[in-house]
């Protein structure tokens, strides 16, 4: 988000990193055409031409295809782990279709299917319904409620296999809010990027304030500050999928309840970003188009492929702009709060 500074300037600040089931790469590939069309209908051809092209589904498929290729078995499939009731299937299909265009076949299965019909051979090659699997792509498994005991066992089987995992457990954990808070500690980037002070400075400039709530003085102080200024902080548990963060009065109540308990260490505290609102029109099924005060949030898709300790691919493959009315603190597109949008460079 663009943080509005006291002097009127703006700086891009990172909200978070997602390393599992990052969605809307497929639909974001289609929205430039929608906005160009609308502008063309209005006779604004010059403006229409300024909408940036964007094709994350192609880039995400390229990353999965690279992993498939490294696995090295011409008939192996990509296994997409899907939810039982998936509302966002067309977003996923865009990636599947890009893979099919490269002659890579995708099979969609649930965790339950894996536990019933998945198996490993003696070389830990993964088979699903008799078909060898080269890459497992998770579009499920990022919330505790996604894991019954049976599903945990399925995840363990997938993890133990020699199929490429997008992501493996370690990479999924690296995306937790706790890890992001630890990365922002002074000296940490310097350890990870030795001899690259410019890169460290550029990265650090995107960090908002992030605070550990571990037991001890540092955590105590963060809690005191947040209770004194509830509008300046966000309380975040280790959860994904939107709707879990606490703001304002709710945050204060949670902090009062948690402050003497070790449970508080399972949360982090974050400085609240305040972007400059602007007027825009949010279009939703079932409600009339209306102009509202909005803020936007820019997402950048990246693909990262690693073989052992060798970095094979680390690329930016597109973007996602989500816009929401200012009255909503939390929540994305899937939660029904934000809408898919396009950046309009000026
Ligand atoms: P999740 O992993 O559940 O999506 P996020 O940390 O991305 O959780 O937060 C969800 C949403 O809440 C974000 O997309 C953003 O709109 C809002 N949000 C999160 N952190 C902040 C913050 N520090 N300042 C302002 N808004 C925030
Ligand atoms: Mg997230």
From TrEMBL:
Its EC number is 6.3.2.3. SUPFAM superfamilies: Glutathione synthetase ATP-binding domain-like, PreATP-grasp domain. Binds 1 Mg(2+) ion per subunit. It catalyses: gamma-L-glutamyl-L-cysteine + glycine + ATP = glutathione + ADP + phosphate + H(+). Residues 77-174 form the Glutathione synthase substrate-binding domain. Transmembrane segments: none annotated. This is Glutathione synthetase. It comes from Balaenoptera acutorostrata (Common minke whale).
